[in-house]
Each structure stands twice: as structure tokens, then as C-alpha cells.
Design a protein that fits this description.
It holds the Pfam family SLFN_AlbA_2. InterPro entries: RecG_C_sf, Schlafen_AlbA_2_dom, Schlafen_AlbA_2_dom_sf. This protein has 15 helices and 19 strands. By secondary structure, the chain is of the alpha+beta class. It folds into 4 domains: about 5-130, 2-Layer Sandwich (Methyltransferase, Cobalt-precorrin-4 Transmethylase, Domain 2); about 145-220, no CATH class; about 225-385, Heat Shock Protein 90; about 390-465, Winged helix-like DNA-binding domain superfamily/Winged helix DNA-binding domain (Arc Repressor Mutant, subunit A, Orthogonal Bundle). The chain is about 35% helix and about 20% strand. The model has no long low-confidence stretch (mean pLDDT about 90). It has helices spanning about 5-10, 30-45, 70-80, 130-140, 155-160, 165-170, 180-190, 205-210, 250-260, 280-295, 340-345, 355-365, 395-410, 420-425, 435-445, and strands at about 20-25, 50, 85-95, 95-105, 120, 125-130, 150-155, 195, 200-205, 225-230, 240-245, 265-270, 275-280, 305-310, 315-320, 375, 380-385, 450, 465.
Length: about 475
């Protein structure tokens, strides 16, 4: 494609550098080794454009670049260095010369490396891809675990007996077919089962979603969700340890109800009336359970989503490391299991893309709970949801984490964080303005948030946006 000055201006208006865009000033030159690495990283992320001569910070002024004044020779050097062809285009923008590198996507099932390092971008940094990410790439084009066969050589009646087809149609708000063939055809159209010469087979995705009892599927039963309840705030004493039996879709409502029934209760006074409330709201449990079930890495055999309930918190974990950085859970979305996610949305179990985490954060703010903590541990993704805790009982990390999440949530809602909005989030009065300023300063120092460059140059009217925006 030919890039025009108008296209350059469209790119400049992007709120943040997109997955397929990278801006660099490079007024006079750009390091060749860094160029090679950026080309490899962008190719590994699906291809895109490296644009020189534009500031990478808003408002992204065109500063012009004198780098690579012989694009043909540079393209030949790049091909020799990285092993794939990159087109280089000069664009004469009214404000200066812009150099655009057209970087192709890597072939399916392949990742590029430079000097042995398989690279990707993380914020402003170039980092090696994780083993988990590489394994996923190299497995592309091969059947995923969800598409493998759970049970084969079945009759139509066997399928009906093994899967909860009635709940399947109820969840889709569809009338139950009048004959068995209609049921089987609908399941097959959703690619949950298959048929060969009059016999049927159930795929793993069909079993994991609709099984009446997961124990009937040897290769799937270890995916059943597990709920562990501890007596206090540590693992020293276990009250109960139960593993579910139903498929995720047909058993989701019961799973949520079971977890809610096991949560500790707190007494609060509301409108002069004492009432008992659960440690964590149901909407939070529901959204995070759905996320754990949907976004787990199904390639990890013998590992399942786990809910751990303590006296002061709930921890929900799932196998695999996230493919979206935890600091971008609120505004970002990418599912490793899109077909399963689509079915769960149609079943009404989860919300539209990325809105679930937004709702969790917003609920925590409304109820003035400590900010959830999203963690990546060994081969697992964990979210910790805390019960009620007064502001003075929150430590520095609690407060800074809440500040960052509030800032991102405001950004998603097309608003900006201010001292007042963060005070409201914590339920503090105007007298706590200095305390809030200290929290914001700490978040700025940790490069989590930054001053909004479009705000007035006044501490009183300062606004803040995420550091990556």
C-alpha cells in the first residue's frame, strides 16, 4: 500500500500505539540493530508499520527524519539480517520527511528471531517471547485441545445421555427440537460433536461445556473446577475441598451459587439496620469465574481452574500465563479460546469482550473495596479479591494499585483521573487531598500513570492518564 500524508495524520491521532504501529523520532539516524529487533517483534505480533520521524508521545508531532536516505539499500540489508522482506517508503509530509517500514506478518506456525532471540514488544521495551507464547505459535495450524476428540463411536442416544442438551437449548433460548436428529444436528452445527457414517463423536469443547458428568470423559475430567475453603487466612487448615462434576456451561450457575454459599459474611449497618453481606459481591465472583474458565490454557494437562476461599479474600486461578499483560486486563482483550468464549457469551455466562474485568474494577470502586490484584505465577494466572478493608488499613501497594486501576477505568470511560475522583474512589473527604496527592505521586514514580499533557499546567487542575496511553 502507498502511505499518504493524510494516512500519517490518521495514525497520529491514535490514542496509543496500536499492536501494528510503532512510532520513533529518529530525526537524524536510527540504530540498525534496534531496527532489526523492531522488525522481528512487529512481524511476530502480526505485522504492521514502524514509522520514523514522528514523536512516539502524544500529540505525536511530525519532526522529520533524515534516517535511511537509501531505502533500497537498507531493505536489502534488512532482508539479510532478519530473513524476510520489509518494504521501506518515504512520505513527504508537510511537516517533514517520514520513513515507513511495511513489516509483514510471520507465517502461521512460525516465529522470527534475531540473533537467537524471539522478540515482542512490551510497552517501550523489546522483550523475549515466553516459552508459553512460542509453544502456542508453533502449535498453530494443529488441532487445539478443545477440538480434539473426547469420546467416539457413539450412537445418537449415547450423545444425549452424556451431554445436558436440554440446558444447552435453554441457555440459547431455543425451543428443544421435537426429535433426536434435530438435537444432534444443532450440536454438530456448533462443532461440539461430529458424525461419521451414522456414528457420533463428542469433541473436548462439547464435553467441557455440556457434560452431565465430566468423569465420563477420561481426558476432560481433570478440567473440572475445584473449590477449596480454608478456615482462616492461610492454607494451614482446610474446611472443604470439592471438585465439580458438570460441564462449565451447564454447571456455571451452580458453581457460582456454591462459591457464594461458602463465602464468609460480614455484618454492616445500613440505614440504621444491621445486615449480613458476603465477603465479595456475586457479580465479581461471576465475572472472574467466567474469565478463569474461558481464558485458561487448555493445553496444560491435569490442571484446572481453582477457587480458594479464605477468611479475608478469594483467589481464583487458571492454568497458563495470560496473553494480555496483567496491567492491560482492564482495557485490553485477546482470547486464546475465541470459539469457546463466543459460546459462553451466547449462553449469557460472560459479557461482551473485555467488559467483565471493567465491571469487577467498577464494583470494587463503588463498594470501596481494596483493588483486585492480578498476578502471574508459575504456569498460572491468579486474581486475588479482597474483602472490605478501611483505607487506613490498606498498605502502600494496595493504594497505588487502586490508583492505577482507577486511572485506567477512567480512561476506558473516556474520562481522566483527578485528585477528587481518586478521593471519591476511596470514600475520603477533601481534607485527604494531600494523602491522595502522595498516592498519585507514587504511581507516577512507578511509571504507572502520568500527567495528562492536555490538562492545564496547574496542580489544582491536574489530570492523569495511564502511563502507556
Amino acid at each position: 500500500m502507498t502511505i499518504t500524508p493524510e494516512q500519517i495524520d490518521v495514525w497520529r491521532t491514535a490514542r496509543s500505539e496500536a499492536q501494528n504501529l510503532e512510532f520513533k523520532e529518529a530525526k537524524t539516524q536510527f540504530d540498525n540493530t534496534k531496527l532489526n529487533k523492531y522488525c522481528v517483534a512487529l512481524a511476530n505480533e502480526g505485522g504492521g508499520f514502524l514509522v520514523l520521524g514522528i514523536s512516539n508521545k502524544p500529540p505525536r508531532r511530525v519532526v522529520g527524519s533524515a534516517a535511511f536516505n537509501d531505502p533500497v539499500a537498507m531493505a536489502a540489508k534488512l532482508f539479510k539480517a532478519v530473513g524476510f522482506r520489509v518494504e521501506i517508503e518515504e512520505v513527504q509530509h508537510p511537516d517533514g520527511r517520514v520513513v515507513v517500514f511495511h513489516i509483514p506478518s510471520r507465517p502461521k506456525g512460525t516465529a522470527y528471531h534475531f540473533e537467537g532471540s524471539y522478540l515482542m514488544r512490551s510497552g517501550e521495551e523489546l522483550v523475549p517471547m515466553s516459552e508459553d507464547q512460542l509453544r502456542k505459535i508453533f502449535a498453530e495450524g494443529q488441532p487445539s485441545w478443545l477440538d480434539e476428540i473426547a469420546k467416539k463411536d457413539l450412537s445418537g442416544q449415547d450423545v444425549i445421555q452424556l451431554l445436558d442438551t436440554q440446558t444447552f437449548f435453554d441457555l440459547l433460548n431455543l425451543p428443544y427440537p421435537t426429535d433426536q436428529l434435530g438435537v444432534l444436528q444443532r450440536l454438530e452445527s456448533e462443532k461440539l460433536i461430529y458424525s461419521v457414517n451414522g456414528n457420533y463423536g463428542i469433541l473436548n469443547i462439547g464435553a467441557v461445556l455440556l457434560a452431565k458428568n465430566l468423569r465420563n470423559f477420561e481426558g476432560v475430567q481433570r478440567k473440572a473446577a475445584r473449590v477449596v475453603v480454608y478456615e482462616k487466612d492461610s492454607k494451614s487448615q482446610t474446611e472443604s475441598d470439592i471438585t465439580g462434576e458438570k460441564g462449565y456451561a451447564v454447571g456455571f450457575k451452580g458453581l457460582v451459587q456454591y462459591v457464594m454459599g461458602k463465602l464468609p459474611q460480614n455484618e454492616v449497618i445500613e440505614n440504621a439496620i444491621r445486615k449480613a453481606v458476603k465477603l465479595v459481591p456475586e457479580v465479581v465472583i461471576r465475572e472472574l469465574l467466567a474469565n478463569a474458565l474461558i481464558h485458561q490454557d487448555y493445553e496444560f494437562i491435569g490442571m484446572s481452574p481453582v477457587v480458594e476461599i479464605y477468611s479475608d479474600r478469594v483467589e481464583i486461578s487458571n492454568p497458563g500465563k495470560p496473553i494480555v499483560p496483567v496491567e492491560r486486563f482492564i482495557d485490553g482483550y485477546q482470547s486464546r479460546n475465541e470459539r469457546l468464549a463466543d459460546l459462553m457469551r451466547r449462553f449469557g455466562i460472560c459479557e461482551e469482550k473485555s467488559s467483565g474485568i471493567d465491571r469487577v474494577i467498577e464494583t470494587a470502586e463503588i463498594l470501596q473495596l481494596p483493588a483486585p490484584n492480578f498476578l502471574v505465577e508459575h504456569q498460572r494466572t491468579v486474581v486475588v479479591i479482597f474483602g472490605p478493608r478501611e483505607f487506613r488499613a490498606m498498605d502502600r501497594s494496595d493504594r497505588v494499585r487502586a490508583c492505577y486501576q482507577h486511572c485506567v477505568l477512567q480512561w476506558v470511560l473516556r474520562k481522566k483521573m483527578t485528585n477528587q475522583s481518586l478521593r471519591d474512589r476511596f470514600g475520603l473527604s477533601e481534607r485527604s487531598g494531600n494523602t491522595i496527592s502522595q498516592i498519585i505521586s507514587e504511581a507516577v514514580q512507578q511509571e504507572l500513570v502520568k500527567n495528562d499533557p492536555s490538562a492545564p499546567d496547574s496542580r489544582k487542575y491536574a489530570r492523569y492518564i495511564p502511563a502507556w496511553a
